Structures are given as structure tokens and as C-alpha cells.
Q: What sequence folds into this?
């Protein structure tokens, strides 16, 4: 979750009245809005919610998905040999174990999830092609296109779930990917979401 | 024979298909939605692939997602199960265009039998008695009223697409017809994406009897007898049995033989079911054909010893049936109880939740097809079928006795199920005498039905 308590640099020299208004706004955010927002996010199918309170806003995201290494590899090895004969099929074995949910589950509050990164996931089952413009180190905004998954000729956009910097790739160009599979790490920008 | 099959379904039928694949030595990939990640078919599969979110429109009903999943996993055939894409000729066509086989009738055959109204005329032409109905689809209210007048009330409004009783209404007067026509249209549109409706004469005291057939690519067809599905609630089957208590042996054989002759002549292919209404006099009227494996297929398997899903896969692979009508023998009596996550005390409201404890019954002649396990969370997005308890006995009385024992032994904790209504059926006099009709449960009301059973 982004940190709503840090004012940005333009607001460092301010009067006491402004500061107390800020504190009141933050209090309202923390005690009233946030719990309601968490409930709403958990019960909705949404990935992200944003609420404004005065000059402040808070954006709530679903927890970053468990990284691939955390998925139980109980199926690795099985079925992989059959893939070898199929061109372009480098499907990541899926671990549907008790703990194998990905970041789409609201119940998934992985304690070990890194709050500084989120992962762009596959919107469809098909063949993945990253966008060359979205190479590692590129700054992106939420909704920016990172690549496509070709589902039977229908290009499905892989988009950045939030603002940040493109990190490592979790799938190779031409890989067969499934729905919800983690594709690209996005390192979060730690500055607060200003009201610009 | 196929090398690798994609199973494009969920729940107990995905498990059933997986077992058939294993029997044949074929690899199986289970395609699943996010909501089914922790389901038994996914856990047991050779391979599993997530095709979309919980919303079936974007997963189990999405032809591009299913076909894409089959391609990237290197499958050479897709088994659609029942419901979802199982009778979608457009889907079957695209599967074939991608060099894979649709396990079911070919797209051309599905198209020929897609319209229930046209199928009735087609098979009527090949000697099947059909129920009086409207000429073609209902164009508008005026047309509907005119046709209903000609057929004679009561009439049944039916959607041309789909099945499972959705969008169906029985009306007794022109006024009722006017008031529900719009609702039926929008229900049909929502459920099947097609709002074509037609009318059928409603037989007040009818039995639902269906004939199971299998026809190979070489036009060799056999029947596997009939099933009685008269125990229904709002057109949804609850319990199925075979042989039907409604007809004598000669009448049953005659019906089944006429059914298979008609579908072979009409160019049908693969396994299928012809549904008939049987009136008080024992006259059977053809109503529709189901071009897929059906929920209640185990009833026939118990009676004949045949494996219908294996037969279906073999036919789709282009193999000849390999046996003739004389090889199909029938033994004893079988009953299937659909175990649903529904509350009989609360208008059969479907439920979801965690299965805290599950124990499947056993013993001679008892079969449980279910995807439940301890700790499994039943998702709220799909149908409420938890499993099918099927019992067999050398005669109907023994099957009923075994059914009682098995229902008592079945444990499903954490969810409300319809087991109470199944138990009530087995103490209902009309059922025990084999005289149940399709509207009985609705007429009596399930509450009264349960109360009456509690007294016996």
C-alpha cells in the first residue's frame, strides 16, 4: 500500500493551520476511509481503489502476487516433457496447491510479499510477447502497455498495475502463458501519489 | 486415438472425463478458471492451465481461451463435458479449424440439430412421434397467441437454444402467455445468447423418458436403453432411474429402437440423448435431442456395464463402435440422486462454502461421482451440483433399499444440501409405486413433500 503520510516537497514550508488540516485529513483517511476501502476492495473484483480526502488521496492495491518461486512446484517435471515437443510451449507449471493462489485473491495477504514491487500478470491464456519499449529500467504509469498475450489471434494487453519502473521479466518472448501468470515485475516509485 | 485431451469443464464431469482419459491411456489437461484453482480435477490432472477469471463468460464459455489453452499445451482434442460450450457448433468448428478434434458430434451435425424446433420436424420425418407445437419460432406476441390457440392450452414456452429448463414457462391462458413472453425472451437471451422461443403442447401428467444412443462415423448406431427423469423441480432433474417404471419391456424396446433408427437416418453422430414425454396412456412424444454426454449418463453405465465417456472419445477419434445392439445387455435397476448445494427448506437456494467433512458411501452397487474433498471450498459462481450418487440393484426394490442406506451414509458437512428431498422421495408412495410425473413435486410443493416424508 502506498504511504499516504508523506507530503511532497512543494508542501514543506507551510503554516500551522495547513498542517493541522493535513493531520485531520490523514486521521479521517486512516480511521474511517481505509477500513471501509479495504472491505470494499476485498469484496470487489477490482485490483485497485483510489479515494480522495481534501488534498490527499490514498490508493489501495491488492497485495503483490506471490513470486513464482513461492508457487509449489508439485507439478514441475510432470507434463514438461510433453511440452518440449510443442513449438513455443514453455508453460510454467502451475501449482494449484493450498497456497498456490496468485495475487488476484483478496484473501492472499502474504506476509512476505514485498510492498515495494508489484507484478503485471497475464490477462489471458496464449503466447506472450513483451513490448520492446517496456524494457527493464523504463518508468511506467499504471495502465501502460508492457506487452501482449496472443489468445487465438486476439491480442490481450499486459498492463502495468501501477506507476513504477520495469523490473525483471518472469517470462520469455514466445512463452506460452496462462491467465493470471506473473510476467513483469514493477518496482514501485516510493514517492506519494501527489494531487498534480 | 488422441494423444492429449483438453478437458474444458469443471466439477464432477471434469473428473469423470479425466478418469476416462486415464482408462484409455490418454494424457489430460484440465482447463480451469481462477475460482477452480484448488479443485480436485485440477489437483489430479496430468497438467492444468488457468484460462480465465471466475466469470464463466471469460473462462469456460470463452471459445478463444479454451482453444488457445489446448494449442499451447499441445492437445489434439477438446472434451467439452456438458453445459458451457458442449453443444456450440461455432466452437466445434473453430476447434476443427485449428487441427484439433471436438469430442462430440461434428460442427455440421451440431448445426443440423441446433434448433429444437427444426430437429422435431427432422426426426418427425424419420418416424418419431412429436408433440404438437408451434410452426417455427415465435415472431411476436400475436403469432404466439395464434399458435397457442391452435395447439390448445396449456402450452409450454421453450427457448430454442440451451437446456436445463432455463427460460421455460408453462401457461394456461392467453393472458398468462402475454404476461410471461417478454420474461422468457430475456431469460433465454441472458442464458443462451439467443431469444428464439417456440411453443409446445403441455401434457399435464407426463413422464420424462429419454433414450441413450451412440452412432459412430460409419453410421453404425445402437441404443443403450432409456432413463426416466420424471422427478423434477421446476424442470430441473433431481433423480433419474432406469428402466422407466412408466413403460413395459416391449414398449421400452420399441421406443429405443425407433429412436436410434431415426437418428441414424438423420445423420447423427456420437453419443446423444433423445428426450420424450410419455403421457398417461403410455404414448411417447419426441421433444428434443441432447448432443452431449449427460449428467445422468452413469445410470446407463450401471445398467449396461458400458463406459459412455470412453465410447464418446472413441467415436470422436474415428473408431468404429466395435459392438452391436445384441452386445448391449441390460441388468437390474439403477437410480441416480443428484446431490446439490441447495436448501430444500429455503426455496432450493443454491449455497457455497467450505466442505468441512465429506464421506462418500460405499458397498455393493454404490457409485459416487463427486469432486468434493475435506476442506474443498465450493465456489458460488457455477451450478450447484456437488456430486451424483448412483445405486444399482438386481431389481427396483433393492436399488431403492441401497439408495436409502447410501443416502444415510453420505456425509457432507459445512454446506446445506438437498439430501433431505432425496430421502423424502424414497419414502413417497407415488415414487415407490413408480408413478411419479414431472410436475408432481411442484404441484405438491417441496415443503409439503418434506413434511409428509417426516411423518412416515
A:
Amino acid at each position: 500500500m502506498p504511504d499516504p503520510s508523506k507530503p511532497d516537497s512543494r508542501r514543506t514550508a507551510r503554516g500551522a493551520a495547513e498542517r493541522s488540516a493535513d493531520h485531520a485529513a490523514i486521521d479521517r483517511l486512516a480511521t474511517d476511509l481505509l477500513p471501509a476501502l479495504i472491505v470494499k476492495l476485498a469484496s470487489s473484483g477490482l485490483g485497485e481503489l483510489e479515494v480522495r480526502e481534501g488534498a490527499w488521496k490514498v490508493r489501495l492495491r491488492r497485495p503483490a502476487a506471490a513470486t513464482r518461486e513461492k508457487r509449489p512446484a508439485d507439478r514441475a517435471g510432470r507434463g514438461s516433457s510433453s511440452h518440449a515437443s510443442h513449438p513455443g510451449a514453455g508453460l510454467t507449471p502451475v501449482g494449484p496447491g493450498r497456497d498456490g493462489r496468485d495475487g488476484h485473491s483478496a484473501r492472499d495477504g502474504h506476509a512476505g510479499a514485498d510492498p515495494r514491487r508489484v507484478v503485471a500478470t497475464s490477462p489471458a491464456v496464449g503466447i506472450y510477447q513483451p513490448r520492446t519499449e517496456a524494457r527493464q529500467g523504463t518508468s511506467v504509469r499504471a495502465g501502460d502497455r508492457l506487452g501482449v498475450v496472443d489468445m487465438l489471434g486476439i491480442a490481450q494487453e499486459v498492463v502495468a498495475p501501477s506507476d513504477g519502473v520495469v523490473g525483471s521479466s518472469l517470462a520469455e518472448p514466445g512463452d506460452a502463458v496462462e491467465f493470471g501468470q506473473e510476467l513483469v515485475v514493477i518496482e514501485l516509485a516510493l514517492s506519494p501519489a501527489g494531487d498534480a | 486415438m488422441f494423444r492429449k485431451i483438453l478437458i474444458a469443464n469443471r466439477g464432477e464431469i471434469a473428473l469423470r472425463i479425466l478418469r476416462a482419459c486415464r482408462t484409455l491411456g490418454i494424457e489430460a489437461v484440465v482447463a480451469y478458471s481462477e475460482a477452480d484453482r484448488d479443485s480436485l480435477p485440477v489437483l489430479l490432472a496430468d497438467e492444468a492451465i488457468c484460462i480465465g477469471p471466475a466469470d464463466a463468460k471469460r473462462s469456460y464459455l470463452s471459445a478463444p481461451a479454451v482453444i488457445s489453452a489446448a494449442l499451447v499445451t499441445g492437445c489434439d482434442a477438446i472434451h467439452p463435458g456438458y453445459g458451457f460450450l458442449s453443444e456450440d457448433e461455432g466452437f466445434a468448428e473453430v476447434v476443427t479449424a485449428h487441427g484439433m478434434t471436438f469430442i462430440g458430434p461434428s460442427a455440421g451435425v451440431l448445426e443440423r440439430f441446433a434448433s429444437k424446433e427444426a430437429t422435431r420436424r427432422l426426426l418427425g420425418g424419420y418416424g418419431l412421434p412429436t408433440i404438437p407445437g408451434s410452426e417455427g419460432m415465435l415472431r411476436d406476441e400475436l403469432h404466439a397467441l395464434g399458435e397457442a390457440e391452435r395447439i390448445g392450452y396449456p402450452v409450454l414456452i421453450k427457448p430454442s437454444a440451451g437446456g436445463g429448463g432455463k427460460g421455460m414457462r408453462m401457461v394456461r391462458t392467453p393472458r398468462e402467455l402475454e404476461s410471461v413472453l417478454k420474461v422468457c425472451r430475456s431469460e433465454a437471451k441472458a442464458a443462451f445468447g439467443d431469444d428464439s422461443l417456440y411453443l409446445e403442447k403441455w401434457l399435464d401428467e407426463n413422464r420424462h423418458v429419454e433414450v441413450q444412443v451412440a452412432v459412430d462415423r460409419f453410421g453404425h448406431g445402437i441404443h443403450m436403453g432409456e432413463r426416466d427423469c420424471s422427478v423434477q423441480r421446476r424442470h430441473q432433474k433431481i433423480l433419474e432411474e432406469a428402466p422407466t417404471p412408466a413403460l413395459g419391456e416391449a414398449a421400452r424396446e420399441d421406443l429405443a429402437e425407433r429412436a436410434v433408427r431415426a437418428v441414424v437416418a438423420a445423420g447423427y453422430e456420437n453419443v446423444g440423448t433423445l428426450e420424450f414425454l410419455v403421457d398417461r396412456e403410455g404414448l411417447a412424444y419426441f421433444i428434443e435431442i441432447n448432443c452431449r454426454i449427460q449428467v445422468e449418463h452413469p445410470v446407463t453405465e450401471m445398467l449396461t456395464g458400458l463406459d459412455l465417456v470412453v465410447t464418446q472419445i472413441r467415436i470422436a477419434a474415428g473408431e468404429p463402435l466395435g459392438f452391436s445392439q445384441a452386445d448391449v445387455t441390460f441388468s437390474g435397476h439403477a437410480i441416480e440422486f443428484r446431490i446439490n448445494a441447495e436448501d430444500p427448506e429455503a426455496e432450493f437456494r443454491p449455497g457455497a462454502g467450505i466442505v468441512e467433512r465429506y464421506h462418500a458411501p460405499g458397498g455393493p452397487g454404490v457409485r459416487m461421482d463427486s469432486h468434493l474433498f475435506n476442506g474443498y471450498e465450493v465456489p458460488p459462481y457455477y451450478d450447484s451440483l456437488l456430486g451424483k450418487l448412483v445405486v444399482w440393484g438386481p431389481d427396483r426394490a433393492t436399488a431403492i433399499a441401497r439408495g436409502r442406506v447410501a443416502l444415510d451414509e453420505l456425509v457432507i458437512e459445512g454446506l446445506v444440501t438437498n439430501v433431505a428431498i432425496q430421502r423424502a422421495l424414497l419414502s413417497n408412495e407415488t415414487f415407490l409405486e413408480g408413478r411419479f410425473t414431472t410436475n408432481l413435486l411442484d404441484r405438491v410443493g417441496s415443503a409439503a413433500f418434506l413434511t409428509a416424508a417426516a411423518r412416515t
